[in-house]
Amino acid sequence: MIGKISGRIEYRTADHVLIDVRGVGYIVYCSDRTMAALPSNGEAVALYTDMVVREDLMQLFGFTTLLEKEWHRLLMSVQGIGAKASLAILGTLGAEGVGRAITLGDVTAIKAAKGIGPKTAQRVIIELKDKAPAVMALGGSLAQAAGDVPALPEDVIEEMPQPPVKVAPATSSSSQAEALSALTNLGYGPSEAATAVAQAAMEDTTAETSTLIRTALRLLAPKG
């Protein structure tokens, strides 16, 4: 299993890039969002990867963060969602957007992805809603463990005259994970805590942990 690719982009198409790793070229398929974040041809890049192996097919799919990769794997576990559909959803919403949409039961957001109909979007939410809190909580530890950017080998870096890696800006997955952890420590259930954090993140996409916690607590407060 190939879990990470580090090298130089040799060429790109609409949905994949060829990454040269010490003379061996790997074709890696990516979402529209990831493709837009990648550097130009000839520059260095590092991507987390997931490999799909079938009788007549072997493909690599690339992600800028481990959280995105985790959502890809979960989306593909849903009946009717293959790699292409998963990348379409991630390309439209991003990893955090997928988590929020599933947690909030937002069918409209899921079916905004190309090729995703309302029945499939509903199935995604039904099958993954209970798993969303755990993935949201996992986001912070993944970001801390990997810095959301896989490192290039030292010998490759030494040969580079330009900056080694260009990836998408860091997201607030760590803040959301910390807020979720704080709420569950206060006694809230994982599902209701995740819903509140998702709503708080939608209100302020740049909110830090403390702001997310305050907003989520306000949303969780008894009404009336």
UniProtKB/TrEMBL annotation:
Q: How does it assemble?
A: Homotetramer. Forms an RuvA(8)-RuvB(12)-Holliday junction (HJ) complex. HJ DNA is sandwiched between 2 RuvA tetramers; dsDNA enters through RuvA and exits via RuvB. An RuvB hexamer assembles on each DNA strand where it exits the tetramer. Each RuvB hexamer is contacted by two RuvA subunits (via domain III) on 2 adjacent RuvB subunits; this complex drives branch migration. In the full resolvosome a probable DNA-RuvA(4)-RuvB(12)-RuvC(2) complex forms which resolves the HJ.
Q: Name one GO cellular component term.
A: cytoplasm
Question: What are the alphabetically sorted keywords of the record?
Answer: Cytoplasm, DNA damage, DNA recombination, DNA repair, DNA-binding
Q: Which GO terms describe its molecular function?
A: ATP binding; four-way junction DNA binding; four-way junction helicase activity
Question: According to the UniProt record, where is the region Domain III?
Answer: 171-224
Q: Which family does it belong to?
A: Belongs to the RuvA family.
The free-text domain remark for this protein reads: Has three domains with a flexible linker between the domains II and III and assumes an 'L' shape. Domain III is highly mobile and contacts RuvB.
**The protein's role, per its UniProt record:** The RuvA-RuvB-RuvC complex processes Holliday junction (HJ) DNA during genetic recombination and DNA repair, while the RuvA-RuvB complex plays an important role in the rescue of blocked DNA replication forks via replication fork reversal (RFR). RuvA specifically binds to HJ cruciform DNA, conferring on it an open structure. The RuvB hexamer acts as an ATP-dependent pump, pulling dsDNA into and through the RuvAB complex. HJ branch migration allows RuvC to scan DNA until it finds its consensus sequence, where it cleaves and resolves the cruciform DNA.
Record domain Holliday junction DNA helicase RuvA C-terminal: where: 176-221
Report the HAMAP family cross-referenced here: DNA_HJ_migration_RuvA
* Gene name of the record: ruvA
Q: Record's Pfam families?
A: HHH_5, RuvA_C, RuvA_N
- Ranges in a coiled coil: none
Main location per the UniProt record: cytoplasm
- Location relative to the cell: Cytoplasm
Q: Where is this region: Domain I?
A: 1-64
What are the GO BP annotations of this UniProt entry? DNA recombination; DNA repair
Its protein name is Holliday junction branch migration complex subunit RuvA
